[in-house]
Amino acid sequence: MIDKVTLILILHNRHKNLDRLLEYYDEYNFPILIADSSVQEHQFTKKKSNWTYSYTPGVSFPKKIEIVLAQVTTPYVVMCADDDFIIPKSILACVSFLEENKDYAIAQGLSIRYEKESLARGNIELGAIYGHIKCIEPDEPLQRLYNMFENYRAVVYAVFRTYVLQQSYQGAGSQIKNLFLNEYITAFIPILYGKCKEIPILYQVREYALDSDDKTAIDIDALLREKQYANEVNVFKSFISTKMAAILMISHKKAEDIVDKIIQDFASKIHIARTTISPKKRIGNLIRHLPIVGPWMIQKNRSIENAKRLNAYIDIHKEKKEIDVVSKLLIKYNK
Fold it and tell me: Which top-rank group of organisms is this from (predicted)?
């Protein structure tokens, strides 16, 4: 099974993180493609026959992904960011599922996060990213697409059928430049080819940091509202519409209307969620300003709520072995 899936490690200037990931996957013989767009080439301490290094400095994220996807020869592929971990046995579980279920194009498992800032405190704090399992299983492609953007969650780091991801990114490198829009290539296109399964096992441990790309990148609501991004958004819409029209055999105009409505509705939901202040948050803002104890109370309450959400989402004790392996590497490479 391990020879049926290629792992793409995505690197940009965080060379220590790549060393960490290569150590993590060292005992596994996945074919590994390293997509590096860093300013400087990576200095390997060792090399293995199943590692292939692709150095493309200065290219956009979609372009470097398009380049490395063209090199994949296995039937399945999975991408992993340099600051995350995807559990090897869970990759294989997803491959096994896709092998047995030909009407599915995407498979992943449960994702949790570690707080980067907690590493400095010597106590790795884990948290749930989502609160429930989400599978997208209607037979009709457009209904699957609509479901993708209801209670949206990213699938960019899922296991895909290789030809599906290759088709999704083909031509993207010359058109899509915005980092944030890149994620939505994997949301719009693959789901039109097949269903999406979320398996109830620990699949991914993601970094959560205030300075991470998903915190600093412009979100889709801002992209739509600010005129300076109008051309980027229009190019993206046209790219997705062209792909959709070909897959579903509909007119480009109909595809454009579908894409535009989905993006507008999705951006509106993001805007409302971001600008609405709940009663709970208002109370929290008041407590935060209490002298001495305020910040401590907020942090304590967050930790308690975080633990509750995590335990409701995943059986941490069952996944302890995998979490311990990741934790040891996080501590080792944080020194």
Answer: Bacteria
